[in-house]
Amino acid sequence: MKIIVTSIFVEDQERALEFYSETLGFVKKHDVPSGEYRWITLVSPDEQDGTELLLEPNVHPAAKEYQEKLFAEGIPVTMFGVPDIDAEYKRLMDKGVKFTMEPTKMSEVKIAVFDDTCGNLIQIIQQ
Known about the structure:
This protein is α/β, with parallel strands linked by helices. It has a single domain, classed as 2,3-Dihydroxybiphenyl 1,2-Dioxygenase, domain 1 (Roll). It contains 3 helices and 8 strands; from the N terminus they run E-H-E-E-E-H-E-H-E-E-E. It has helices at about 15-25, 60-70, 85-95; strands spanning about 5-10, 25-35, 35-45, 50-55, 80, 100-105, 110-115, 120-125. The strands form 2 sheets. A 4-stranded mixed sheet has the order 1-4-3-2. A 4-stranded mixed sheet has the order 5-8-7-6. The longest helix is centred in the middle third of the chain and has 12 residues, at about 60-70. The radius of gyration is 15 Å and the shape is globular.
């Protein structure tokens, strides 16, 4: 068994697609109409057959509450690995990304947290 798709709730699918592809650099794999919303997935440019990230609309009240509470508590909804967190931090800062935690050494890893502009905090990690 393996993970093929994981989802993240977003306030606006189009804004999320722009942020995750143009700012973060993920590659759009699927963009299919699904009722009044879309099935939008992205993949890492380095693993285009790898795990897909689904940009899930947060229209259900439970999803919206979950997303809002995690954000209010400062809890990232997911984690992305990077080879050089200081370089990635600078690259994203240059693109206007707002960080809630700058790169910080934590035991054997270094982490940082940013706002994805779509209702989520995302953690990046260098192992």
